[in-house]
Amino acid sequence: MTVITVRSYHLDGYGHVNNARYLEFLEEARWAFFGQHDLLPKLGNILLVVSRIDIRYLRAATEHQVLHIRTQIPNMAEKAILLRQTITRGDTGKTVAEADVTLKPVNPQTGRTTALPDELIRTLNLLGESL
Fold first, then answer.
1. Which residue ranges form the domains of the chain, and what is each CATH number?
2. Which residues are tagged catalytic?
3. Could you list the pLDDT tens digit for every one of the 131 residues in the chain?
4. Which residues belong to the signal peptide in this entry (predicted)?
5. Are strands 95-106 and 80-89 parallel, antiparallel or unpaired?
6. Neighbouring residues of 19: CB distance < 8 A, sequence distance ≥ 6
7. Nearest residue to 48 via CA among 36, 57, 39
8. Closest CA to 49 of 76, 80, 28, 70
């Protein structure tokens, strides 16, 4: 889980977190998730790129609130990983936003989608079972 405190520069003119900032929060949580589970070395020489994000905003987050972001793996295929990310308020546990994020493995030399490394697939399968 990743914890973020809402700062004044995250806010829009209405005094709540700007929708674009949620993308940054979710990205930070994805990097933390991959780091916490030691997944980055298992990528080998491939890149994981976001190919789709579906965000559902459920309630506003405001300055000084502490947000918890949980990342899970509900589905995975040879050439795609689906992450489900949930942002909740730390004080109430109420959901602020939910996102489904599709990551595609890309070969950096060709720029084309490629298969996920076997070691990464094994580890992600184990993680998905334990979450």
1. 2-130 (3.10.129.10)
2. 12
3. 999 999 999 999 999 999 999 999 999 999 999 899 888 888 888 899 999 999 999 999 999 999 999 999 888 888 998 999 999 999 999 999 999 999 999 999 999 999 888 888 888 877 765 55
4. none
5. antiparallel
6. 12, 55, 57
7. 39
8. 80
